[in-house]
Specification:
Number of strands: 20
Strand order of the largest sheet: 2-11-10-3-9
CATH topology of the largest domain: D-amino Acid Aminotransferase, Chain A, domain 1
Largest sheet: 5 strands, mixed
Number of helices: 25
CATH class of the largest domain: Alpha Beta
CATH superfamily of the largest domain: DNA ligase/mRNA capping enzyme
Distance between the termini: 31 Å
Radius of gyration: 29 Å
Bound molecules: adenosine monophosphate, zinc ion
CATH architecture of the largest domain: 2-Layer Sandwich
Structural class: alpha+beta
Number of domains: 6
Length: 666
Amino acid sequence: MKEKIETLREELRKHNYNYYVLDKPTISDYEFDVKLKELQDLEAKHPEFFDETSPTLRVGGQVTKKFNTVKHRFRMYSLDNSYSKEDLLDWEARIHKILDTDEVQYTCELKYDGASINITYQNGKLIRAVTRGDGFEGDEVTTNIKTIKSVPLQLQGNYPSDFDIRGEIMLPNAGFLKMNEERIANGEEPYMNPRNTASGSLKLQDSAEVAKRPLECYLYTLIVNGMNTKFSTQFESLQVARNYGFKVPEQAKLVSTIDEILDYVNYWEVARHQLPFEIDGVVVKVNSLDQQEELGYTAKAPRWAMAYKFKAEQVSTVLEHISYQVGRTGAITPVANLQPVLLAGTTVKRASLHNADQIEKFDIRVNDTVYVEKGGEIIPKIVGVDFSKRPKNSTPTQYATHCPDCKTELVRNEGDAKHYCPNELACPTQITGRIQHYISRKALDIEGLGGETVALLVKEGLIKTYADLYDLTVEDILPLERMAEKSAQNLIDGVEKSKTVPFEKVLFGLGIRFVGATVAKKLARYYKNIDALANATQEELENVDEIGERIAASVVSFFTDERQIAIIAKLKQVGVQFEINEADLVLESTVFEGKTFLFTGKLTKFTRDEAKEMVEKNGGKTISGVSKKLDFLVVGEKAGSKLKKAQAIETITILTEVEFLKQINR
Ligand code: AMP
Ligand code: ZN
């Protein structure tokens, strides 16, 4: 059995390497998943053969409460920056002078705009991964790094027994855009740029969340301590690292003259926009490791390397008009419509203006000449106004007061950055958007029905709400453009099948503002059915773990709207799931049924997440504050104010961690 497990691990490692490092898969995703599942099952049955480099660990799951600070074995220096070609020429001349020779070669590399990382390998196994921090010490983020598929957990070939390797964790543009689309679909603010999102990902506590993000790791510095290394130049070291199984940048180039360096810079200054990820410059490194040693370091950076930073590309153009878009939850986004202008290799006609505050801050007006920039970000943005070109008759921008679509007066709640169209159920864009959301994959996942068909059904007046989907018949939809008997039947079947989709997805599908997939799951598990949720007060909702004021208010307002109640009643009547199927939860017992728990102080026997899971698996709930509603307070070490407060309420039972475990026979 051990042999079988190891063969599978070896095979999966190879396929991972082919797919993520070489970009040349040799089996289908499906075959890969089947093998992975087989290995997972075997490992579950045989925990005695655990291996910390198993490909099954890629999916994450371990939670890090607090990231340990770790000292770097070798300091992580910064790089000297140059912003002009002259700076680069000066640097190159200086190198020649110090080394007193004309024989200098350079490795030119891209300067990745991500989060830097140092990874330690011992005997071929990934031991530790640490962020740069202040260069002397950083945070240990090993569990999170292990989920990144292009980082080898087990090396191949003839590797040194102990070394560090450095590189950059990147979020490629396509993955970044996809994450943002999902956030917007969930009514959440999009992330700013790939770099911040990549470095933020490294510090997520739940490694399963990290595993879901399409992060990549490019490695460019191999540090083998002392011993006779198999390379004597930077360029060779990249090849060597590639042989061990690392993803090493393809674009590195070995050159011998300053002209070649400048060619490289000029080429990538333009070609960078074709890369699938973002770079903010190039890095030039003296190739010979002996020469590097001779040159040494300044207080903060190596003398043997120089970064050349690209300027954020900026152009000015005329803002022709401001238009407003309505999202599915009614959120309004102002858009700058520009006189078309070439920027970073693409023609730009539009830029985001974010919200009313942004427009006011920069005092942006129609007919202004504005500066448009494309730097680290993918979407161009307006960074200022050329006031010298402002027309004499210019007047300050009046932000839209009414919905561009249904003309209803907009509202802006205190604390919200955005304006909203409050006409949820009659605003055409919102009607279509809501139904499109309802049928989407993470919600009711209705097969046979796509976004365009929804728009068509709305336009033809066949549906007004998602509840109307359940009234559709084949005869209704057959007359639609491009609709054949088979596709009509598929649509009807898909709608029928959605009646078995679990409550938490239905709740998400309702499209309550700020209730994304995760919050919906939380609420569904807590309240168990729609009536309990609909009757919850603002205060009760805020008491639910991780539910804040904003979400609570949105839920309450949704369920006080009689039109929404009517829609839900109709959905209920046709048989859509509005309560949790208890069997899905696989309860261990019901000893905590109807009881509420709160954990306080430093827990030593289990983590907070584990505690919560134990409570839920035994029929109880956790809440976030001490009040009369609390039944049990479980105290760890150094419990503080919550314990005091609980002692003052007679009905609360106070338990130690051990006493808590005893209740569920653990
Ligand atoms: P800076 O943050 O401007 O001081 O630049 C130094 C950082 O550039 C390093 O910490 C690395 O994370 C990053 N970097 C990106 N690409 C490279 C590369 N090819 N070689 C060295 N450092 C790089
Ligand atoms: Zn509207």
